[in-house]
């Protein structure tokens, strides 16, 4: 049974609240993460953010074989470039839900392809920060059914 969920954000997502607020909103992820914790008191939520592809890979490898763990991954722009992240998600046992705050399919063509989708158990786009909570809900439901 899933007890711990890692929320992993990739490049530039440390700038949430300051960055292109018309697209990503005015709220910092740290602020939203406090709300996520309050709303999921039965779970151990862990937040990790990195601007470095290798650090994201290392984190996935580190947690990818731990029991009772799930991952919500917003790989940012690496979504559209990283075969290495695709391979890492394929190679680990932990289920990974892909989340994007914006609807990447309604944006520039270079955002339409994701290397993550095919390896992830589910993909949520365009729901704003609420997509992370939806991802948690998906992992829990999938786990009990
Ligand atoms: C994003 C969409 C990506 O295309 C972009 O590079 C990001 C954020 C999103 O959450 O909407 O950094 O993953």
List the helices and strands and how they pair.
Elements: E1 4-9, H1 21-24, H2 29-39, E2 44-49, H3 53-63, E3 69-74, H4 83-91, E4 96-100, E5 122-125, H5 130-144
Parallel strand pairs: 1-2, 1-3, 3-4, 4-5
The protein binds 1,3,4-trihydroxy-5-OXO-cyclohexanecarboxylic acid.
1,3,4-trihydroxy-5-OXO-cyclohexanecarboxylic acid binds near residues 77, 79 and 111.
Q: Can you offer a commentary on this structure?
A:
Helix 3 runs parallel beside helix 4. The chain has 145 residues and is α/β, with parallel strands linked by helices. Strands 2-1-3-4-5 form a 5-stranded parallel beta sheet, with helices on both faces. The chain has 5 helices and 5 strands. The protein has one domain: Rossmann fold, CATH 3.40.50.9100. The structure holds 1,3,4-trihydroxy-5-OXO-cyclohexanecarboxylic acid. 1,3,4-trihydroxy-5-OXO-cyclohexanecarboxylic acid binds at residues 12, 74, 76-77, 79, 100-102, 104, 111. 1,3,4-trihydroxy-5-OXO-cyclohexanecarboxylic acid (DQA) binds next to loops.
